[in-house]
């Protein structure tokens, strides 16, 4: 399941390459043919990301809601204005340069480290899965428009950029009222909501729930964007037993969870990686950016010694998802 930083990064990609442009829409697979016909030829006017969902607005007060879920993915092709925090030099989008060699960044006129500063737009084809599972450049990068490959639910085509959507949990058209209703059901997102108001909402909900905090952090109605990786890491960083009922977590600890999520989400959007370890040397930082197992405290470390106390990291199932935690530090 994608986590919030990825969705915000892909929304940024759409903002650069589709917003303000007339978009041709089709459904090669046929499952979204009617919806594609409605938005075909309209101008994309706005994009929003809230938690794990993205909303793309078209002229005429029409919105496209996308929730990738477990198996959804985007393919981008064409001359793409890219931010290397979104697509690295090896063609991977949704994650940072896996070679992990560069910390310094070149900022562009928009205040971001876009590849426009080193010669973009460039013609390319990249696969974007909203997790850390991605593929690289395709062999058909010079064909335009690119051939349809596999089961494409929706193809969005601007003059020079193509985006193919596969396997989403949700792909539907909504009115402004329906978008507002969808967002109203979601918990606060630090990149969308006022931080102080979001903290109050999150704290109030958690503090009245008997539900284990390990489940509450994954509930998108409580807080938006947290998935399996961030859950495990936030709980460890707070030294919090995941089984503790929300109402029993001290208020200041709940507030610090929100503030820590705010920090980690910002790092994730900037770097493309779910970096959750602090105070690394430059060498260790490069190593961590190159290898997932070097940038987390407990996630994916079942049976290995805790980085703090040496106790074996436990793996269990909570909320039908894998939970990693240290029974010594988190008690």
From TrEMBL:
Cofactor(s) for this UniProt protein: Zn(2+)
Domain FPG-type span(s) in chain numbering: 297-331
Domain Formamidopyrimidine-DNA glycosylase catalytic as annotated: residue spans: 2-100
The UniProt record lists the keyword Zinc-finger: yes
Keyword terms of this UniProt record: DNA damage, DNA repair, DNA-binding, Glycosidase, Hydrolase, Lyase, Metal-binding, Multifunctional enzyme, Zinc, Zinc-finger
InterPro entries, per database record: FPG_cat, FPG_N, H2TH_FPG, Ribosomal_uS13-like_H2TH, Znf_DNA_glyclase/AP_lyase, Znf_FPG/IleRS
E.C. numbers: 4.2.99.18
Family: Belongs to the FPG family.
Protein name: DNA-(apurinic or apyrimidinic site) lyase
Origin species: Microbacterium terricola
Organism lineage: Bacteria, Bacillati, Actinomycetota, Actinomycetes, Micrococcales
């Amino acid at each position: 399941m994608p986590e919030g930083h990825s969705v915000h990064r892909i929304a940024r990609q759409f903002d650069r390459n589709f917003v303000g442009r007339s978009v041709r829409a089709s459904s090669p697979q046929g499952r979204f043919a009617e919806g594609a016909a409605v938005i075909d030829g309209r101008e994309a006017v706005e994009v929003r990301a809230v938690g794990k969902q993205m909303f793309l607005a078209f002229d005429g007060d029409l919105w496209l809601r996308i929730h990738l879920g477990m198996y959804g993915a985007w393919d981008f092709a064409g001359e793409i204005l890219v931010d290397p925090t979104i697509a690295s030099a090896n063609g991977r989008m949704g994650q940072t340069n896996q070679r992990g060699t560069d910390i310094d960044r070149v900022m562009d006129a928009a205040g971001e480290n876009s590849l426009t500063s080193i010669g973009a737009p460039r013609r390319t084809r990249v696969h974007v899965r909203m997790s850390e599972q991605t593929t690289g450049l395709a062999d058909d990068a010079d064909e335009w428009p690119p051939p349809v490959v596999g089961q494409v639910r929706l193809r969005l085509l601007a003059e020079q950029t193509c985006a193919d959507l596969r396997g989403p949990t949700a792909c539907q058209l909504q009115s402004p009222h329906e978008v507002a209703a969808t967002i109203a059901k979601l918990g606060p997102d630090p990149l969308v909501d006022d931080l102080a108001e979001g903290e109050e909402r999150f704290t109030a909900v958690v503090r009245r729930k008997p539900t284990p905090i390990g489940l509450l952090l994954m509930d998108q109605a409580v807080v938006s964007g947290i998935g399996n990786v961030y859950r495990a890491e936030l709980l460890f960083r707070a030294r919090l037993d995941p089984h503790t009922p929300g109402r029993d977590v001290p208020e200041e600890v709940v507030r610090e969870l929100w503030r820590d999520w705010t920090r980690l989400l910002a790092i994730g959007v900037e770097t493309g990686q779910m970096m959750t370890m602090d105070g690394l040397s430059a060498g260790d930082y490069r190593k961590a950016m190159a290898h997932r197992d070097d940038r987390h405290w407990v996630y994916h470390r079942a049976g290995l010694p805790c980085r703090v106390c040496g106790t074996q990291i436990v793996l269990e199932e909570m909320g039908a998802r894998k939970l990693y935690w240290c029974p010594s530090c988190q008690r």
